[in-house]
Design brief:
The chain is an alpha/beta fold. The chain has one domain: Divalent-metal-dependent TIM barrel enzymes (TIM Barrel, Alpha-Beta Barrel), CATH 3.20.20. Helices cover 47% and strands 14% of the residues. The chain has an eight-stranded parallel beta barrel, surrounded by five helices.
Length: 272
């Protein structure tokens, strides 16, 4: 299993510094973040791709995935024709960049303004994903769906795109718990074959009526990580686990502490 860390957990918007911090932290990889329109050119454009390739090589840090966080700023693939067209262009850019960089996964977050709330929206997303799934398949890239959907809804989405191996779930521990799903049970019910990659993210559940707090280091919230690791072992998942942790004033120290926490769990013969 390989451990990566999100760019936003290190130096948001600073590509070179993020690679440097990832390398010094001991992470195996760095998940790139495209959260603003400017990032699309800086990271996914021709010069950006060359810079990523150079930094990856010099810092000996792989790029397992590209996160298209900018899709959260609009209704994306569940919106009107204009929103869908713009979102498809962004995803197409992500697929092309991932193919050149050697990243296996392009993360599509259905969060923020793009959260899927109704069955009609889910069906619209499935319809709009078909064309993109074909593009991803041709490029040997996987579209990782990060969402707040329950297991049955995730399976519904995947079943309707069953002709493609290029669409899978990007599983997130914090998202699962924030929706009151048990993360380990959710993962077992979904199955490792449906998961392309994982985010290890912690969350502290507030009192009823209060939003969950994601500004916590791994192990300081309410996610049962030993239970999640046991589920990973039972399912035989051996892909990338990417740490999604809060940015801090001391990102290197935080990254090292979070990586140490996860490696400690993975080294235990029976976590939990």
């Amino acid at each position: 299993m390989h451990l990566g860390i999100m760019q936003n957990s290190l130096a948001p918007g600073e590509l070179e510094r993020s690679f440097d911090l990832a390398g010094r932290s001991g992470a195996d990889g760095l998940e790139l973040a495209c959260d603003r329109a400017a990032d699309l050119a800086d990271v996914l454009g021709r010069d950006g791709i060359r810079q990523v390739q150079k930094l990856s090589k010099s810092h000996k840090v792989r790029v397992p995935s590209i996160g298209l966080g900018v899709l959260r700023e609009d209704e994306s693939l569940l919106g009107d024709a204009k929103a869908v067209s713009a979102a498809k262009d962004v995803v197409h850019q992500g697929i092309c960049a991932a193919e050149e960089i050697g990243a296996r996964v392009v993360l599509l977050p259905f969060l923020g303004k793009a959260v899927i709330e109704t069955e009609a929206e889910l069906d619209r997303v499935i319809e709009n994903l078909e064309e993109l799934a074909e593009q991803a398949e041709e490029a040997s890239v996987v579209l990782g769906i990060e969402s707040t959907l329950n297991v049955d809804q995730q399976k519904h989405l995947l079943a309707h795109l069953g002709a493609y191996t290029s669409v899978r779930v990007y599983y997130d521990t914090g998202n699962a718990l924030s929706r009151k799903f048990d993360p380990a049970t959710y993962l077992r019910d979904l199955g490792a074959d449906q998961v392309c990659q994982m985010h290890f993210k912690d969350v502290r559940l507030g009192e009823e009526g209060r939003p969950p707090d994601f500004d916590v280091a791994l192990g300081d919230g309410d996610v049962d990580f030993p239970g999640v690791v046991n589920a990973i072992r039972a399912l035989g998942f051996d892909g990338w686990v990417v740490l999604e942790t809060p940015a801090t004033a001391k990102p290197l120290a935080a990254a090292k502490a979070n990586l140490r926490f996860v490696r400690g769990l993975l080294d235990e013969p029976g976590a939990g």
